[in-house]
Design a protein that fits this description.
Order of helices and strands: HEEEHEE
Strand order of the largest sheet: 1-2-3-5-4
Mean pLDDT: 97
Largest sheet: 5 strands, antiparallel
Number of domains: 1
Structural class: alpha+beta
CATH architecture: 2-Layer Sandwich
CATH class: Alpha Beta
Number of strands: 5
Bound molecules: 2'-deoxyguanosine-5'-monophosphate
Shape: globular
Oligomer: single chain
Radius of gyration: 13 Å
Distance between the termini: 35 Å
Length: 110
């Protein structure tokens, strides 16, 4: 298995896991861009949001992200959810994930 996120999910590689259930997991980004930077993803290997078939799964991942934002204390302050998809987005790891960013003023997109 050469997907780093699959290796974290299986326990073969370390990760600071903050949430998991039967179908999803969340762990802290190794290179945080904000005081809170968590990656939320399905345990099954879906390469990107462009290849999703189960949109209910996406809703459940967003629900987890919202709950983690509250738990991290950024729910009221505001936070950003980001999904990169494909080369020009800068997606580095081809395993669908949502970035939860918060805890500082986030710049405008562009
Ligand atoms: P993206 O560019 O959207 O594919 O974001 C990938 C993120 O994954 C990036 O912010 C860094 C993070 N990342 C890469 N390798 C690892 C790792 O081994 N462990 C953890 N926790 N995060 C990683």
């Amino acid at each position: 298995m050469d997907c780093i996120f699959c290796r974290i999910i299986s326990g073969e590689a370390p990760g600071e896991i903050v949430y998991q259930d039967d179908e999803a997991i969340a762990f802290r980004d190794i290179n945080p861009q904000a005081p809170t930077h968590i990656l939320i993803m399905p345990k099954s290997h879906i390469p990107s949001i462009a290849e999703v078939e189960d949109y209910g799964l996406v809703g459940r991942l967003v629900n987890i992200a919202n709950e983690l934002a509250k738990r991290e204390g950024v729910g009221e302050r505001g936070y950003r959810l980001v999904i990169n998809s494909g080369p020009e987005s800068g997606q580095e790891v081809p395993h669908l994930h949502i970035h939860l960013l918060g805890g500082r003023v986030l710049g405008r997109l562009g």
